[in-house]
Structures
1.
Amino acid sequence: MNNDSSFRIVAALRDWIAQAVPGARLPSTRALVAEYAASPVTVQKALRTLTAQGLIETRPGSGAFVRAVRTARPLDYSWQTAALRSPHRHIPSWASAMRTAPQGVIALHTGYPDRELLPERLIRSALARSARSEAALTRSPVAGLPELQAWFANELGAETPVGVTLPLASDVIVLPGSQSGLSTIFRALVTAGQPMLMESPTYWGAIVAAAQTGVEVVPIATGPDGPDPDELARAFQETGSRVFYAQPNYANPTGTQWSAALRSQVLDVVRAHGAFLVEDDWAHDFGISTTSHPVAAQDDAGHVVYIRSLTKSVSPSIRIAALIARGPARERILADRGAESMYVSGVLQAAALDVVTQPGWQTHLRNLRQQLGARRDLLLTSLREHAPDAHIANVPAGGLNLWARLPHGTNLDRLVADCEAAGVLIAAGTDWFPAEPTGPFIRLNYAGPNPGAFADGARIIGRALASNT
């Protein structure tokens, strides 16, 4: 399929549509094939792009038509302003990474791995067995199935060095995905109106959770090597905060992995200030050239609250994660979880446990490591060749994303719009900053669908950047 031909047809038809009346019928596919000397597949791709952009609509058996602008009485929602009252603060909307990609576009924006990177056979078998088990008919304990709690505790225990007390199954709380866990932790350990330190840039979902719970975020700059321990200590001292949210392994969006020295230094700072480190190990299963090394493995005094998700690595439909905490903090978190959702589906817990305890799970992870490495390198090579102005400061050793800095003065909104018009979805870096962005960035996912289109996508990004500055 020739993407350049498709884009040429889209551009020509956009001009034609601009001059046409609403409801006008577009030339037939056969006529477009002849006019542009293109294949029917290329023409259909161009029509799908125009449909996704809302410019045309198709009617089965009749053809494609210029979309009519339907007018109606203006909808007035002003009454809701008084009913809802003024919010304490603005709560960000869901990030662009959650957008569903129309068919035919090159999707570099998403935050999830492609279906072909999931252990599909293991998932389907596990769900079938789980549906026939007692878990399908009984209520799960509030903290989770004991067998699944033990699996999470044993996994972290395997990383725990000699001299540090191993985590127990009773330290584990099973969650319906890590996002709800973040909201719970922020409510239970920080509370509304209190300060919390947070890496910047960082996971957009943590920023949203902080806003929803009324937490006052204090950004801590992080770079290719992670945060500066001295800056972290200064922020604890100046703000009085007792919680620091961070992603020490394959951070979203930067891909940064902390060194062993930095893990120890940050933990020392946290201990010195009688504080908590909320460690988000979202990409535990996505190592490429290294493996995840949780800070939590070095702590047995309850300073680290550890979150480990299976949602992205097992299946987005099996939203299972775990939180490991010790002491009164765990009890406070568990009380919040019980009030929030009572318990997590036993069927999903049993299915997740089934998947990760099958011999095929480790085989899948080894294959996944190779596939992610090949995809990362392919996208990186494509960008360096076709979009050299998208500078990658850090080649991640794991995770799903590349974090690219763009030239000073780049208009991000225009760049995203131009790329989308040409058939590529990218995510503006703005969503990942809890305060003002420090420059123009984009996040590109190399684990999404159709890696064969990475070169075309990079070429489009390069053209859009060249016309942006």
Note: The radius of gyration is 24 Å.
2.
Amino acid sequence: MKALAARAPGGPETLELVDVDAPAPAPGEILVKVAACGLNPVDYKIRMGYFSEGRRYPAVYGWDVAGVVDRAGEGVTGFAPGDRVFYFAPLGAPGAYAEYHTVAASLAAPMSSALSFAEAAPLPLAGNTAYQALLRRADLKPEETVLIIGAAGGVGSLAVQLAAWRGARVIGVCSTGNMEYVSSLGASEVIDYTARDVNAEVPRLTGGVGVDVAFDLVGGAGFSQAAAALRPHGRLVFLNAFTRDYDKAMAAVNAARLKNLDLHCMIVQPEGGVMRALARLAERGFLKPQVDRVIPLTGVAEAHRRLETMHGRGKIVIDMGLPC
């Protein structure tokens, strides 16, 4: 089968189209013909060497998958050839920039009929991240106020929608060009971080009280802003606190202690139950994945360069050419 693989850890130039043997489903697994694959920032980070210990090269990346079950392994129930499925595969497993991919059946979910393959592929990893962060770690409740820093990105755009569905008041932080977009997703207020001081705007918008929950998707200065925005005993969920401005982030941790904040550091884990919840929300129109662009497999190297800028609206999707 055709796959896009990296010869070794490094830049986008390490990616090349190769012929490899198609995988076979082990007991408890399904073999999926990949229709679309969503790209995530973790893809380029792993390509550069993150989580590379024990990884075999040439290595295939990509863990957001939408496709059709080709066959099921021994002991699998609930899935049959021809079923449309989507899932987020474990980051330590071989990836899905390929024609076929295997995954534990327990991690997959039937695709919502409301979504095309290109719309479903961006949802699993980002959706799991937003769901686990806001509804599990932060336990966001109706009528609470949540600040989402990085609200226009793949995870942020879904986090805004999930928080709005939950009945929370959403304050999104993004750049000038994304303000209207973030508002359209369900944010009550939007702060343009390029023109406004987030640390001044949040007290103004909350009457000096602060927010109940903050979700930081940026790290560094974003982590500091999130900690400062919270009321005493508020909850902060973050992914990359120390990616930049390390000293400021450390100072923010000390400030968080003085306000008795709950800090939740997380890395997303694949969950079939969350996938099924996301599918139901999409089916009912509460959640719509935001697609930045759809590309062929041969365009992935350039897409990785775009991912590395940390800018963009929604997700980049690889179209493997399987009809919807």
Note: The mean pLDDT is 91.
3.
Amino acid sequence: MRVTMIGAGYVGLVSGACFADFGHHVTCVDKDPAKIDKLLNGVMPIYEPGLDQLVAQNVREGRLDFTLDAAAAIKEADAVFIAVGTPSRRGDGHADLTYVFAAAEEIADLMDGYTVVVTKSTVPVGTGDKVEEIIRTRRPDADFAVVSNPEFLREGAAISDFKRPDRIVVGTEDERAKQVMQELYRPLFLNETPLLFMGRRTSELTKYAGNAFLAMKITFINEIADLCEQVGANVQHVARGIGLDNRIGGKFLNAGPGYGGSCFPKDTLALVRTAQEARAPVELIETTVRVNDERKKAMAARVLEACGGDVKGKTIAVLGLTFKPNTDDMRDAPSLDILPALQAAGARVRAFDPEGMHEAAKHFSGVAFVDGPYACIDGADATVILTEWDQFRALDLDRMKQAMKAPVLVDLRNIYSPSEMKAMGFIYSSIGRP
């Protein structure tokens, strides 16, 4: 089949490359000349493990291409995916659908013959109705269907998630559109991947509900971690004890500095706004948003406490800046709250991240970026682990202790064992453990 992906960002590029790898012919369209130029030269605009090889292979085999010109790509497509950004709108937290609606207008003007228009972007309930209205108004003669097909991709594991998903959610009641979507995802039938057809509005809400539940789960275990610290319990043992209950599950039960990234913050806020307008407030999610925001802001206080209450004039080494490992995404990362708070308290901040320093440099002022974890901790008064990159999981503790001015380690991801760190002579602080 011929697929056109409007938007060559994270979702569009990963989805396009994976569809091409399934055997479809995919054209990714984007309005950013610099991005398209990079892609045409084999340079990825984002970091995602394995994406560069997947793109290169499918470009080489003629199944994947990139363009600024949407005309031919849309005209020839069996399915056109809208995979543009839906950031939080300034002022009210609603999803900004400007790019989605602009894409719908462009598709309406250019499509030829029966076309399935698929919303891949995360959008509020009812967006598909508006997209259909836009297209129908501009092209009363058009033969098309608007389908919701939300993505469930984890940054750092997106290719695996696309090719081996837990489920595929498709919102449509159009029989021809169902057949097109079944053909697009046919390679996954061998794995018996559930393909769930439902109403379009139901599909749109399913995406938000899924992300909100996971965000709530993270916030829950973080609050349990705070309780553990007060009563002398171990949150990791609690998480394992409840996670082995298959009604709960062990995923997203790792206590830490709060969730961030491109999805959870904006999607929970958008769901709250949608629910308020529908007069069906989601108070659990409202609390989740508030508690998570407060948690990220409070993490700097843990560093101050580990340093005796004062970091003025001290050098604080920070390992990890992105919101999670295996990505260069800085959106709503806890570091965006923690580092400025440390600087405001008088600390000199030195930082290293394996992939995120280029993006991080756009957000921080006065932070010294260095090459490698040991260069970061050399002479530091304290080290903070903010992101659990693999290379931080097995640091040479002897070398680390000798390199630091003071052996203070604040482990906000619970990578190391408190007993081991105590035996090594570190002043060690972690999350929810005695």
Note: Residues 2-197 form a domain with the Rossmann fold fold (CATH 3.40.50.720).
